[in-house]
Each structure stands twice: as C-alpha cells, then as structure tokens.
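quick one: magnesium ion bound model?
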Amino acid sequence: MRYNIGLLKGDGIGPEIVESAVRVLETVGKKFGHEFVFTDYDIGGAALDKYGIPLPDATVEGCLASDSVLLGAVGGPKWDTLPGNLRPEKALLGIREAMGLFTNLRPAKLYSALKDDCPLRCDIVENGFDIMIVRELTGGIYFGERGMREGKYGEEAYDTECYSRMEIERIARVAFESARKRKGKLTSIDKANVLESSRLWRKVVHEIAEQYSDVECSDMLVDNAAMQLVRNPAQFDVIVTSNMFGDILSDEASQITGSIGMLPSASLGETSRGLYEPIHGSAPDIAGKGLANPIATILSAAMMLLYSFGLASESDCIVAAVDKVLDAGYRTADIAHGADSLSTTEITDKIIENI
Ligand code: IPM
Ligand code: MG
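yep, here:
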C-alpha cells in the first residue's frame, strides 16, 4: 500500500524528531512492503517567518489532502510576544479545528525499564500504570467566546467554557469504546460542583453509559483527579475529560512516566485521517543539539500506523523496537540521569536496528 503523509515539522526540536520518525517509518515500510510518501508543510514559527502567518492555507489544504499527518512541535521565544491570533500555538488549534479532530488520545504508561525515572515512591508504582487519556480537543474554553471589555473594575478579559450535548456525546462514545477494548473502566473528569458546563458533561456521560453496561464508569472532580494521579495512578484505565482539563492532566500524567519525551498522542475525527504528535513542546533550549528524545514522535508514528492505516503489526513492531532499546539500557539525555547517553540520531539508529 501507498500512504501520503503530511509532515508539519514546526519549530525548535520539531524538525529533528520528525526526521527520526520518518526514518523509522521508512524502515517499517521496507520491511512490510508499504510506500510512505512524505510532504512537508509549514506551520507555527517557521510559517510566521516565511509568510507572516502561523497557519497558511496551503498547509491546511495539504493536510486535508494527506492520508494522515505527523507533527513535531510549534512555538519558541522568538514568537512569544506576538498577539494571540498570530502565535504559533494558534496554528495548532487551527489545524485541529480545520481537520475536525475532536478526539485526543494520550496514552501514559510506565515502562518497566524507566521505573527509576518515575518521581513517585516505588511502592506507589510497583505494579506500573497504563492510562489512556481521552481529551476533547475542539471545544470548551479553547474555542469559546473570548475578548476584552470594560467591567466593574475597569479593563477585563474573559474566555468562555461552553460544551454542547453533541460534543460531549461524541467524545464520550470514543472513550467508552476505548475502555471496552482495554480494562473496561472509565473515569469521567469534570468540575460539576461548580461549572454548569461540567454538569451537562456529567449528565450526558451518564446517558451514554447506559449503552455501555460492560464498562464501569465513574465521575471524578478534576482537583481530586490531579491528586489521585500522583496518589495511585494504577486506579485509572481510561480517562475522558474536557479540552483544558485534559491538557493539564496529560502533562501531569506524562511526568509520572519519567519523561515528557516519551509520550505520543493521536488526534482523531470522523475520518481515518489524524494528526499525530508528541505531547511535549518545541524545547527551543536544546534545539539543533542532537539532545532531543525522539521516542514520543516515533511512538506517535506507531499510533498513526494503527489508528489511521489499521496496520497493527507494523505499529507493534515499532513499539517493540522502542521497548527493546530501552530494556537494553540505551537512553537519551533526558532519561539518562547524567550517565552516558545517545544523541537523537543514535537512539533512532538503535530503534531502526530492532525493526
Ligand atoms: C498540547 C499543548 C497545546 C494545547 C498548546 C501548545 C496550544 O499544550 O498539545 O497539550 O494546549 O493543546
Ligand atoms: Mg499541553
């Protein structure tokens, strides 16, 4: 089979880590007899520098014409002072919206080889943990009405959290389906003791739950969830939550896996076309130094093979190669604790050797 993959390398370490994932995909393609055709499109600061806007139309059109899209990272200090609508991050929200990607899957699991990197006490993570965060991605406060106005105390700014029944229903279904394929446990996280939008969220999740009697579903308030994640992460199987709560909790979950450099993500909509990206940012401080950990991006490519192309064995093959390299003790600097470490290219070579 032939697959067209759009590449959004972006800023900072984006180009290096995407290059690693491309090499891994090419190796998998050769081994299993697939052809992956890659096309670059500009996004974020890279697009701002060239065209003065973070998300050119050609990028949106190119992504919509691709079979799937792999993204590195966007943003950096150079563009931090631009107004909100010109910030590189705006491009990320724009492309998610343009591609209709309302689901964001963020798996956070503890690799046994990386147990010592986990900042939690060893008795807490004795049995590891394996969490799938299902984050709503095109609604809520990220996309609600916002603005500036004159208020009681003078100048004020506001952002609005708004969720429709339809948006809650479709993300809840994705989460229940995911739980059904895993351990059958779903935790819906909200702030229903305060927010009206959370009360609708909870009501709709309960309604959908009736269609999934095989899934054990419970609610948790977000502040408690933030605490439970570090108190006993193994209690979670699938988490479903809103855009902003998912953003915050997925960073927390990533840190207890040892390194944010390990976590992939998949953004999905109604079609098989997705956007796959590491959950970490552009890390401008280490860009171009060969220090970046490419594993999150390589695992994002593995998620693409599975979720967009249905290539389960090919995807497993990448995951197994990463496992082997970690088990053999190879590390990038972020997970080496000052011991010997491999560069971005070197660890990619090791993963490729194991495919
Ligand atoms: C993420 C990031 C983005 C988000 C930013 C860069 C807009 O933090 O993907 O988690 O908040 O969604
Ligand atoms: Mg985030």
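The longest strand covers residues 2-10.
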